[in-house]
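#onboarding

Welcome to the new folks! Below is a worked example of what a typical request in this channel looks like: someone posts a single protein sequence, and someone else replies with the predicted structure as tokens. Don't worry about understanding the tokens yet, we'll cover that in week two.

Example request:
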Amino acid sequence: MKITSHGLSVTPPPGWDASIYLRPPGPGEVTRPVLHAATVPLPAGRGDYGSGLVETLGATDVFVALLDFGTDNADTALFASTAMPGLTPDMYRPKAMQRVIAGQAGVQRFFTAGGRAFCLYSVIGSYAAAQSLCARANQVLGSLEVQAVGG
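Example response:
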């Protein structure tokens, strides 16, 4: 089932849980869309980069996050790539995680799409199974759509 919100769309594979949301802003804070997709149920109290969720991943599980960094950051040096990232197994690294968890690996890529800057972050439950788990993450990424600013 396709999920569309805040200029983002994703069609998660069967058995995946996915959502697109805006965190309630704190005083003086601007929040932007966050997309999460995982092979485990998405807990309500998870962080933007999956804290509260990645700790629950088993050896066959995958988590994908797409964080919108807005139009002001689009095409800056960090977000210079204009290609939607595809992931390869060798991109996943245990030390690329926000917090190292034994056996797991993560990857982070930055890019601009539709005039908006994005961070793609993905975690796999088993570094040893990177080949098959990366393919599962790419299924989600292959269904991702970004609406252009003003589009």
